[in-house]
Amino acid sequence: MTRKPPPEPRGGAAAQLKRGPWTPEEDDLLARYVAREGEGRWRTLPRRAGLLRCGKSCRLRWMNYLRPDIKRGPIAADEEDLILRLHRLLGNRWSLIAGRLPGRTDNEIKNYWNSHLSKKLIAQGIDPRTHRPLAAAGTSHSDAAAAAPAADKTPPVVEPSVTPPLPADPSPSSAVGDGGGDFAAMMSLDAEGFEGFGDQFQAVDAARSGFDLGCAMVDDDTFSSFLDSLINEDHFVDYFGDHKDADGQNDQGGAN
DNA sequence: AATCGTAGCAACCGCCGTACA
DNA sequence: TTGTACGGCGGTTGCTACGAT
C-alpha cells in the first residue's frame, strides 16, 4: 500500500522533509546506514544518512519494514492464536504482544487485530476489548457487529493501559506500589483467578497492573515465564478452541 | 464498463516515560 | 530538582486494491 504525499509540506524546516510512502532508494539509504552505524540517534540519523525524512519516520520505517528479522507474509494460525491470548492478557499493548511474536511488528499486529481479529471476535459474540461475551457487556451480538467500525473508535470499556481495575484486596498492588512488589502473590492470585473465567479477568488485571507498576522488580525473564504460563492455560484453548472450530479456520490469507 | 463501498495496511500524529545535562 | 531531547507507543488517517452492484 502506498500513500500519496500531502498536497503541501508544512512550513519552516519541515518544508524540506519528505513525507508519504518510502521509495526503494530511501529504503536502501536507510538500511545501509543502519547496517553500518547501528540503530539509535534517530533525530540526527536522516541528515547523517542523507535522507530528507524526520527521525521518527526513519525509525518507524526501519522497525516496521526494513529490519532484517522482519517476518513477511500472512499471520499463521498459531500466531493468531497467540495474539488472541496475549491481547486478552495485555490489552492493546501491541509492542508487548509483538515481543512474543518473533519477526512481527507492533504495527503489523495492531493492523491485523483491527482489520481481522476484532471483527472475528465480534462475529463470534465476543467483545474484542474485554474478551467477554458481548451479551455480558450489555450489547447484543448483531448490534455490536453492525456498530463494529464505530466501536473501534470509541474509548474502550476496559482501559488496560492506564490504571487497570484491581482485585478487591489491594495488598498485592500496594506492595508493588511500594517498590517491593510481591510477584509471588501476584502469581498465586492468578492461579486462583483461573478457577473461573470471570475471575480470570481480575487476575489478569492484577498481573497486568503488577507488571505496569513494578517492572523494576520483575525482570524480563520472570515476566516472560509468567506470560508463558498464562498463555498456555487450557482455559483459553477450551474457550477459543470452540469458537475456532465453529468458525472453521482463521480468515487468514486474505491479506496480500 | 462504471460506480460505490469496504478491506487492508503503510505511514503519520501526538502523548508519555526515561535519560541526561 | 528541573528542563529538554529523545525514543517508544498506541491511536488514527488516508490511500490503493478489490469485490459487489
Secondary structure elements and pairings:
Elements: H1 24-37, H2 45-49, H3 55-66, H4 77-90, H5 94-99, H6 106-123, H7 141-146, H8 148-153, H9 171-177, H10 183-193, H11 197-213, H12 220-231, H13 234-247
Helix pairs in contact: 1-3, 9-11, 10-11
The structure holds a DNA duplex (21 and 21 nucleotides).
Cα-based radius of gyration, to the nearest Å: 21 Å
The description of the largest β-sheet is: none
The amount of helix comes to: 55-70%
What is the tally of helical segments?
13
The number of E-state strands comes to 0
Order of helices and strands: HHHHHHHHHHHHH
Low-confidence stretches: 1-14, 138-217, 234-256
Described by the principal axes of the CA atoms, the overall outline is elongated
CATH fold title of the domain at 77-160 and 237-247: Arc Repressor Mutant, subunit A
Assigned CATH superfamily of the domain at 77-160 and 237-247: Homeodomain-like
Name of the CATH class of the domain at 77-160 and 237-247 = Mainly Alpha
Strand content: under 5%
- The CATH architecture assignment of the domain at 77-160 and 237-247 turns out to be Orthogonal Bundle
Kindly name the structural category.
Answer: mainly alpha
Average pLDDT confidence is 62
N-to-C terminal Cα separation, in Å? 10 Å
